[in-house]
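#onboarding

Welcome to the new folks! Below is a worked example of what a typical request in this channel looks like: someone posts a single protein sequence, and someone else replies with the predicted structure as tokens. Don't worry about understanding the tokens yet, we'll cover that in week two.

Example request:
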Amino acid sequence: MLFQLESVTKTYGAVTALSNLSLSVPTGAVGLLGPNGSGKTTMIRTLLGLITVDKGSGSILDLDFRERQLDIRRQVGFAPEDECLFPRVAGVEFAAYAGELVGMRSKDAMQRAHEVLDYVGLGEARYRRVETYSTGMKQRLKLASAIVHDPKLLILDEPTNGMDPAGREEVIELSRDLAHNKGMSLIFSSHLLQDVEAVCDHIVVLGGGKLLAEGKLKDLKQV
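Example response:
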């Protein structure tokens, strides 16, 4: 299984972000679909061990998210929706730093940073400061930084948000290539069904912190 949740509940004051959520999802390209506020980002942060849940248990890549947070972050790449890039830092420096954060040696991290920037199409912009990047370039840099350590699983949270059509298609194509040609499992979180359909085979639909549907995309479309 890619990840499992058992009766997970997470509240923020009077707001219930996840409500007694239980599911078990196989490896592969998984779409996490739902409107803003549905609980997608909270579920991702739960799986990564970034937040503490009120109750429940679970695992990702067979690692308990309550006890194995460091191991999880070494095996998972995460590109958050929020702005996370440092100003006055070159793109290649940021990607290399992301590798060092998960334990790569500086020399290896820098070499790998050059490789992943070439892969995402930022080779010519590798020495530019990140604040000069366009929205699409920033999204591709976040993706490159998430795969610099060659993770077993890549998690993308709203990766096409705010992008123009050309940039959106670039990110979708990269996501599809990683999941279907490079053998990397993927969680692609979005509120856009067409983006999820373009990348994923399996889908999890959330609404109000609850599981609304889960299964193979082709099967759910026939219901």
